[in-house]
Amino acid sequence: MIQFNCDGSLSTTTKWTIKNCTSTRCSFEIVLNEKVMTTFSELYIPSRTLAYGVYQLTLTVIMIDSPNLKSSSSVYVRITATGITANLVQLGTSMITRGGQQDLLLDPGTFSVDPDEATFDATKWKYTYYCRIYDLYNLPNLQGILLSIDDSRVDPYNPSCLSNRSGNGTGLIFGNLTSSPNSSLTVLGGSLQLNQMYQFMVYMENRKNSSIQATGYVLVTIEVTHPQLIAVGCVISPMCVPNLEFQLLNPTTQVALFTVCIGTCTNLQSIKWNIYQGSDNSTSSNSTQWILFNNTILYENIWFFGTNTSNFTATDQLFLNNLQISLWRFEVVYTFLSAISTSALNFIINQPPANGSCSINPLSGTIPTLFTIECPNWYDVDGIQDYSLYAWTTDISQRTIIAFSSEYNFQVRLPAGDNETSLLNLVVYVRDLAGSVTQVNISSVNIIAD
Length: 450
Prior knowledge:
Elements: E1 12-21, E2 26-29, E3 53-63, E4 70-79, E5 95-99, E6 104-106, H1 108-111, E7 125-133, E8 141-142, E9 145-146, E10 172-175, E11 184-187, E12 196-206, E13 213-223, E14 229-234, E15 241-243, E16 246-249, E17 255-262, E18 268-280, E19 288-292, E20 304-305, E21 311-314, H2 317-320, E22 327-336, E23 340-349, E24 359-361, E25 364-366, E26 371-374, E27 384-392, E28 400-405, E29 409-412, E30 423-432, E31 437-448
């Protein structure tokens, strides 16, 4: 007769270890901050904890009563550099207004952002500035090679931005010439034409690795008055991903913006937000035409909140009810006693993954059954990040995540249904690298409890 002795404990301990890897081996163990918990089955490492490189992450599980019984599994992770955000003005504002006699300061060395560092190191970069008269001309170039703002050569078809230019960049002052050359540019008052809009661009190149680059833009309207500079930014910065002249926006998220008045901002009379829809006019003047969204008052405190304050929110319903619109501008107008200041932040809708499908096989089984999920042919310009499988029985609000994978085909075991039904409803979320999601309903399956 066989007898079982089950007096021993089946409790286990778990421990994560992290080793830095070279091209031949992983031998140097990393000592993490005490706030990183390494004794749970899940491991969370905050950003900026690990330096660039390859790491071996190993989870070891040991039986408490039998320490010789243990098992380990490892995964390898490469930490790479995150692209910087090149900002010419504070907060990456898309459009500002300046007076004709006011100096214009463009300072990417100060206002750019490196997500991998606490502060931006301006000394690591080279800076080249370009400018064009917006709506009328392209960036000055000769045979397709762009002419920088201080280049004395002339493009006969796309004139220089500087109205008083008389050779070699008159009206320009480059800053920080010793520590970080050209990391800022001041366009002196009187150099730009009144009642004209200009687009400035900075091209930044890493000094040690020329393949690492960044580009930033700002539109500047020149007026007769002396307006204050108003910066516009996103309250939650990771939800606004820079994309050249725009911020990338997922249509299923809200836009929450705030403003900062730079300088002396007394005698403020009012604040007003305007919303514009954009249409690409690249075939004619390489610009965007903006049309005022007329229903702002109708949807105030429904879609729009804070239309007369420094903080403004537009809910996702604005975008979900206007899916045909891909370009949006949120403009703030500060009215002072002596001048009006206008600034804006421009957004482009991040289109979700498309052109694919998802299926499951088999369509019935028990709890131990392995089901295969296949989601082939999905495409997104940003790339596909992962596929998440959710399930529910009768109430979709009670759906729970079952599995996720970076591969388009994967296998899962599914839970049994509830007391009312054995039918399990399934949906796959296909997500791109910028966070936009396509939901795909797949066939329901019957799960029979053993």
